[in-house]
Amino acid sequence: MPTIYDLKPKFQALLRPVCAALARVGVTANQVTIAAFLLSLAHGAAIAATAGADWVLWVLPIVLFIRMAMNAIDGMLAREFGQKSNLGAILNELTDVLSDVALYLPFALIAGMPPVLVVMVVLFAVIAEMTGVVGIQIGASRRYDGPFGKSDRAFFFGALALLLIFFEPGWWSTTLIAFAAALGLATIVNRARMALKEAGKGADHANT
User: Mind telling me which residue stretches traverse the membrane in this protein (predicted)?
Assistant: First the structure.
């Protein structure tokens, strides 16, 4: 299924000059990864502390864009500038999940939002990323299949934040969150299915 993640190569091409400049001054991939997580943690704390004040919601799409750029940059630094490491791989996966939890779980504290559904969306996001990683364990690649991957979640919550500035939460926000939960569940199933399919093809080639 197509997702916003499919635009990643073009986004990386735009960021490559910035990435090269950071590498020249000694910035490492792991530093960028940790910085992106700390940014997410700080803004998630602001959402929780203010119960979704307008100014915090205004800033969220900007934070999500910066986080997405930093995630692309740390990957390029690792791959294109010889900075790959086992620690970096662990940090990348863990901080992605923790950043999602930090940024999206506080939406449950916004008055009028359905807390159970928000928790479900975040839980399904964590399971979806875990499913993607488990693909490697069974002989497939790290799966990023949609329809509700990391970039899609960022777009959804960024747009939701802007809508909440202008409209009181109600049936419409509950409907959107329920839809996001359904997409999250579909993503888990799709990643598991595609990982099994890929691993099966690998086994077939090995037996021929």
Answer: 21-39, 45-66, 87-110, 116-139, 151-167
